[in-house]
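>> received
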Amino acid sequence: MTINRMVSIMAGSMVLLSLALTHIAGQIDLLHPTWLWLTGFVGLNVFQMGFTGFCPAAKVFKALGFREATNASSAMASDKSCC
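>> returned
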């Protein structure tokens, strides 16, 4: 498992945990449609991306013409505006 996937799993877990704890504390009601459903959807997608490697947003950005970086060092080296 790579560091990027572990970060995705941790980030998704923290978003979902914060929603669950807020609901348990009675500060929000998850049974009513609110913008918190968007937060839960994003957290769930980040969590599943950590395990599967599939990211729907990456597919959309790729279809729009954005390019993928092969790794951080090559992306930094190709950026002439840095330093």
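>> Residues 78-83 have pLDDT under 50 and may be disordered.
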